[in-house]
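Practice problem: predict the structure.
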Amino acid sequence: MKVHLITHGCKANQYDTETFRQELEARGAQIVDEPEEADACVVNTCTVTHQADRTARKDIRSAKRANPDLQIVVAGCSAAQRTEDYVQMPEVADVVEGHDQIEVADQIAPESPYLDTHEEPVGAELLDEHKPRTRGWLKIQDGCDRNCAFCATKLARGDSRSRDPDDIVDEAKRLSRSHCELVFTGIHIGHYGRDLSPRGEPQEHTLSTLTERLLDEVPDVRFRLGSIEATEIDDRMINLLEHSGGRLVPHLHVPMQSGSNSVLRDMRRWHTREDYRDRMREIARRLPYLGLGADVMVGFPGETEEDFAQTRELVEQLPFTYLHVFPFSAREGTAAADMEEDRVSPEIKGKRSRDLRELAMKKGERYRERRVGQAAEIVVENEDYGMTEDYLRVELTGDPDQRLGDLMYAPLEMEDSDLIARI
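Answer:
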């Protein structure tokens, strides 16, 4: 059985696809790069925007055109939210409502010698490797307890569920054999541990205590936080960023969504622009350099020109090195889907998106220029490029035998507006 895997969306989805791969390989499947080579295909979908749903359907049809005999199994967030849409597609053989690797594998390889000799499927075990990446994803939780007005991910993923810290540490040790950097991922990692203590008792496990333990018990890798809310970066975590010697890398992706307090309230966000601004400034003040990114949504229902001006002002004030800018997309089942009044036109959303992206590009260019001449710790991702600790993609020149996944140190140079490192 040859299987082709297609993944859309966030790092949590990418991690889930790896669990699909590991379970399928344990059952004797061979993972192949192209649908034309495959007997079956798993499409792990995202539902963060309408475009994500459209892209999934497009890829399904494209894969079936490339190989009319292909068995296509659809899984993931969009499959959980829009199950019947995929059931009705003639190209689709089976739909898994979510990310259960056992259910996915059962659709493709229900029988195998492995299952005859093992009491439990490998899906009950820990992930060994994130193929073919040089940096590995370490999923620490799933789901979310918040109810942001625009977000369908909570509807697809459910409430926050933290993994056992012992399992996370054991998995990190396994992954460290193949990856020199591990990236924390999940849907709301700042809520890690809240469900591990009995209700009414002090919270024993937090993201910061987990990070401390990983730094202590898994010594041969560096760690990177995934997307985390500003109000959930506590002083303990800032101390780790400042004093871990770079093993917790100086890079944060902190969703902002809007710089207008009135829009934030309508979004059902729990921070103010002042909360966000003050925390980001405190972190930047304590670190010699910082890769800082954010998600920003434009065109949320009721967003005025003044609201957008406040968002743009906050972006200008903070040391962002990149932004992910999204025009608002109403998702079925969310509170914002019913906000028919004061909808912002596509033209205005497009204009505001372009404005912020241009601003973010300029800020990123200025940051890269400041880093020229400074040393960086770089993960070699392929023969041409690497990733610095502060999330800069750099072109590599020099030794072609540098092993993929190695950590190397080199001063950064600028050539034709591109960062380079000579190895």
